[in-house]
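pinning this so it doesn't scroll away 📌
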Amino acid sequence: MPAEPGPDRRPLGLFLEPLRIVAERCHAGGIAETERVIAERGGVLAQFQPLIRELCAASGAFAEVTELPPDAARLRLFTYLEQTLAAVAEPRPLVLLLDDLQWADALSAAAVRHLATARRSASRRLLLIAATRPRSLGAGEAEVAPATGAQELTLPHLSEAALHQVIADMLGVRAAPREFVGYVAKQSGGNPYFAAEYLRAAIASSLLLMDHRGGWRWSGGKQPAARLALPASLGQAMALRLGELDASATSVAQIAAVLGGEQAADLLGAVLGGEEDRFARALHALVTADVLEEQRPGALRFCHDELRRLAQEGVSEARRREIQERAAVAMEAAGMSADATVAGTLGLRWEAAGRPERARPYFLAAARHAASRYSPAEAARLFAAYFRTCDGATEESISARLAYATEALGYGQDPDAADSQLRLAMAEAAALGARGCEAEALHRLGKMHLDAGDLAGSSRHQAAALKIWEEIADRSGQARAWLEMAQIALDRGDAEEAMALCTRARDHCRGAGDDRHEGIALAYAGIIAHDQADYAAAEQYSREALAIHTRIGDRRGSGNTLNNLALVLAEMGRRGEALALYEEALQTHRAVGHRLSEGTTLANMARLLGEAGEVGRARHLFRESLRIQKETANHANRGFTFFDLAVLERRAGTGPARLARLLDRAEAIADSAAARLLAVLCACERGHHALLQRQDTADLIAAVKESAAALGVDLREATEAGRALGRLQRAMRAVERGAPLLHGECPDTIPAGLRGQVGDPSAGGSP
């Protein structure tokens, strides 16, 4: 299905028609088929295809959509789209043909890329065919073509034999006049569209005539150029076609050309004005002349881009503005102003009409809608259009700039540009006296600095935001600032300060009745307690947080807290309970489409299974986790996963070259992400590698302790870093007294399940 060309392309436009067909099939199949094909994915897909919302609401299967960061939400959308198509393909394989990929919007192009690179077994029953014109790649298609690894086929121009068959089919006969076919093959260069133009002209010029037996006779000879009224270029041929139209048809063609893309016939008629019969006659003439074609009932577009270009040539600038304004007024009269999916088009109409004040609210609504539908590139374009229509800074424009920075440029899209926009928003808010907006800009800047590892910069911004929120008595803002400051304190190694800030935020939220942030504060208190090896407190905090998340329906918070609680129980030796909680967390993450947390939980689950001796299953989950973490740009957690996989592989007896590569990747991420704990863990793991290689390890422990002290990492025995150091020390002492090691480690420090899986330590080993 062709996507709409031009700047008002609908997000996920290439897939709207396939999703409509899916909805119709589910409607015919009833509730059972709806639940099988769409299930809990309906809420997300319905944001693009309203028929799915109606279908799911009727069946009772509709699920509300949990808000996610743009990158994670895009992945959820693509995953749900893939799963839905795979479900359709389950009874029998499915072929999905997407035409005119060069016109695809950015979200459609990214979805095609996801489908083309998917490796899930269910997706192998789906054959994706995407067609594009040569040398006319659009922005969306260009993004897809180089990286999919898909098979690429270039269709050459038709040979004379193939043209003969095409022309014969068009004429409805077995054989076409060979003199005519030879002439067309020479003149058209094998272009089927151009060949059709010659056929049309030959019939119109009476050089190709039907005889009394239903056959066709050619009377033009071998060189009919003098008699065949067809120019030598395709553009001239199309200009000739447009020149044959009457005034009304020409006017409708010009209106369609100025409006661009696929347009509703009703809208063209409203812009033309006058009698309905006049418009109907003009439309009939345009369709009959192959200038416009009906893509679907009531929707028209030009048969060829060149026709649209030629139709626009004679339209004055004043007439263009008039057409755009009449179209905008007609759309508003039809009730489209409340539809966020067409707000961007309305904005463009009013801007092109020279009315920026009318365009502004539509651009803002469309930008926020695009951001909510996981299309940061589309959102950035629409936010830029909104700012283009602003006369100066207002609280609305500052709020929009904050959204632009975080929802369109943030989350790894363009951090430098996001930082610049936040600083501009902060300056505008200060000049305007919009204190709440100024605090919000400072808060978001602080979060960005924390993500980049700049603890000092993050602390300064959060303190400044907190001061303003205190001055204007914004209790929710104060709690948010304290929680971010708790994260900073923990990253600095000051767990006591982190817990104090967390407790303050929790008590503040409880007093203000802010359940959501109270749950977040409790969950974070559980993380701090776990980091300090106070597992009883960590379990208590996590269960209190989980109760709040469940009560207020915060499924995303529930999934994260289930994962954290499982971590605590695993440390306490309650592995069966931990594994069950990990499974529940995974189901929750997948239900809300939270891919980032799904990758984290898979890694934690893999570590637990590895310690239980299920090495093969652990490897599989580690690989799946790494794939998701790469997709979601979860850089720091990807480093911990490489480290955990390196430990598993060493204990399982994998060769030193692979171990070194895994550890190199973990250390590189630790350096780039300022991951202090990961750096110390990697240093300890290097020690085990040194023991495996029989290297000199005399100064190793001192070097690890010095590194931990410099980074502020707690080496108490109960902490993760302390346990890692303890395992290394025991292995080194075993080497000194001549005791055997198991793959570079003292056997009794390896989990029992894994120890039994990889061999009998009494049989000796390295070094």
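📌 and the second one:
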Amino acid sequence: MSKTKLLSMAGAALLLNCLLFAAYRLAFLANNPHPTTSSELARILLSGLRLDVALMGFEFALIGLLTMLFRRLKAGRIMFWFWGLFALHAFVCAANLSTFMERNQNAGDLILPYITSPYQIYLAVMPFCQDHWIMMLGLLAGVVGWFLAGWEIARWVEGQEQPTDLWGSPRIISLSLLVTLSPLMMTWQPIIKQKRGAHNKGISAVFASSKYYTHFSDYRQNEAAINPLYEFVGVQIPTALNRSLPYRLTEPQLMEEWSEDHGPVQDAQYPVEQTVQGKADSPIENIVIIQVEGLSGSVLQQKRKGKPVTPFLRGLMKDDLYFPNTFQNANFTSGGVFSTASGVPKQTWDEPTRRFTSYELHGFYGSLAHILGTSNYTHYFCEGFRQSGDDFLAFMSYQGCKVLNYEAFKERLTAKHQLVVADSPLGIHDGYMMQETADLLEQCPTRVTAHLMTCSTHSPWTVPPSFAGPFDEPDLNTFAYLDASIEAFAQRIEHSPKLRGKTLLVVLGDHTSVTFGNNVMERLRIPLFFFAPGLPRIEGNHEHWAQQIDVVPSVLGLLRGKHTYAGMGRNLFDPQYQFEGVTSGTRDTGYFLTSDWLLRYHPFGGKAELFALTNGEAATEDLAANHAEIAAELEFEAYARMELAKRLAVAKRIYPNSSPLCPGAMASQR
């Protein structure tokens, strides 16, 4: 078989399959209730094309390996494999499109959770097949006809070319192997990583992934960009096989535990859905959440030579609503952002090598963007880190936010000739990022929400040249700079005609970092502030124990009207608020806190430890042996919350997707 013929067949297969996937995406978006602009459509098609090419790279390499195993390169066999590959892609596209139109979920999201329960899949599929039996017969006939036609064409092609022996000599074997593996180059994704020096960059090659391309604020636009087969084989199956731990509790046990704490479940499909009652006379319309890198609660208490490290935030501790007993849900940034945005605690030990698990990354949660909608709101997520931003952008895009990353801020600051002073080895300095965000908020024609992730308060602890650090400790200087940046941002809000008196600022840490004592509670406690520049002091109970998942429902409690919320957080301003415990953890350890106890347990094996709490501080003596029943009860509660959150997230049953592709889809879901 000639090289020209082989390249022609491969090129035609690549072109036709890419056109097929493009048609699938157009069909996917055709009934999207949110209009897709021409620029968005171009981005979706180009992003999808990149993933399609990566998929074909793997498939071409697989076909090459099979050909080498058969020894002889036959034109008819190659033709038939390409013919079948097109059919496979067409089936996957049709199945995924139909599934999403019916249930607002990808086919893989439905198949894998029930792969060990075929009867459940049968119950889901058979009603559709029975209602569309003529179409099913037509599809079956079409499949048979397609492969019969392919077989005949392959036989004709076979007669036109002589087979080539791929094992004829070591040279031919080496060349064949090189050609076979060369399509894998189509799968590479070059990633530029910034090193310590501002001009020291390195390029790493990784497999192309949807997380680099799903940065649209509309959920279905992200789903359209994904290649369904590439996602299923490359992400969903490995994730299903690599679940960190088996479930310990059954779903009935989880629902019973949830009902005991929260009352009867109103909707079995979305059991954590609830209503948050806001304030009837609230003037607040805009929400800005500032999540500070590594902000430990103990930082706010620090003074050096009589000078407070964070004077502005210390002032808010007296004048506005500050929750001193707030705790991180995870000890790393992605876990803090996830818990805050979703209202669901991060299971920190699940898929520990990922920032977000695959079901989290593409999940649909009760975020502010999903709850408040887009009819009179624009939602932003802003972060200035140079590195590791793609996971955050993909996750927050799926939660309905328009995302701005380092490159976006770099472009804006370059236009203002400020990049030289605003840039750092970590990314954009906090003050410059906040001021650019303030510009966005002031210029936005609608109400706004924004979730800002800062970066300056992280090693190597650098501040802009214009900031005269008052302390000898570089880390404390960065917190002083962060404090000044938040104060300047709050002043900008207070003097803005558009934002003054209508904007709520929420400041909290993503996790702890710098600490000044040895008590374990200091490594769990972060600050949480609610304040509104230009408005009287917000009233509330400062004594409540809080966690990051409480932010969204508490914000809703400060807006006007009722809001449908779905998550595991509680409204801190609800007069009926009851503290139920805090879930937290690291990559291999879990924590569960009540007002009296701290439980430290070990999901991968090991005995749980129980420590008494006095005045918010943990004793050092392990009391698990003396209070075995309490330890067992707390461990059960901890697993019940984490496993309920995971089960619902995997099945996409946290928050209803309220904009289905076709009429009646929500009715079929619910």
